[in-house]
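dumping this here before i forget
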Amino acid sequence: VPTKLKILRGSPGKRPLNNAEPQPAEVTSPPRAPHYLDDIAKREWRRVIKPLVASRILTHVDIAAVEAYCQAYARWRQAEAHVQAEGSIIETTNGNIIQSPWVSIANTSQREMRSWMTEMGMTASSRSRVKVVGEAKEDDSLVAQLKRAIGE
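structure:
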């Protein structure tokens, strides 16, 4: 767990924090969706990027995680559309009844989404572990915010 999240969540085990953790630059304004995302992924990007930037946890090195989440979301939506149109059970050319491969794709994409959402604090349970310790001033450095949060 990143140190910034440990500070926000609290450290019930009172383990020492990593004061030498790299601090990538925080994303301060919502970037545009990458051109290579499909339309569904771009819509999801636009829906989630502003709240993620506003959370002040998103850094420039986290952008690929947001891209991966949006792509998994798009794949899930596409697979679900196939399941709705074709059903979750299909008949093979031999006459056997099997689960549609789209169900498996939807389930796998949903697991990927959940994993990325948890990493980025986008689920109710992952947010419930975060404590907001006060609003930081724009000119505050991350180090100063962290020190204030841990009482140094």
